[in-house]
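Posted in: Protein Modeling Q&A

I'm a second-year student putting together a small comparison for a lab meeting, and my supervisor asked me to include a predicted structure for Membrane protein. I've never done this before, so apologies if this is the wrong subforum. The sequence is pasted below exactly as I got it from our records. If anyone can share the structure token output, I'd also love a short note on what stands out.
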Amino acid sequence: MLTRYRVMAYVTAVMLLILCGCMVAKYGFDTGEDLTFAVSQAHGVLYIVYLVFAFDLGSKARWPFGKIVWLLLSGTIPFAAFFVERKVVAEVKPLVSGAQSVPVNA
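Accepted answer (user: helix_wrangler)
Welcome! Here is the predicted structure, written out as tokens:
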């Protein structure tokens, strides 16, 4: 659960940065319109996957709604997903490792 969130957080963040570069090329230099369209479509699909994984992680961690919303929105702000991902991993990793160390027959 944590690994798939981390992968999608990085993929979404990198695609958003590429999209920002494409937008600069498209609107600043009037070039790369087709590439911008393709990257925007790919980012949109990947962001939807990110939303599903991030919501799943937040709901399983039993976070309040506001915190989950911030987690979901971090995929729309350039560079934010990198920082939020590190904070989420630091907070969730002890929960995951604690759940794995509990005996099944306890």
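A couple of things worth pointing out for your meeting: Helices lie at 2-29, 33-60, 65-73, 80-100. The chain has one domain: 2-97.
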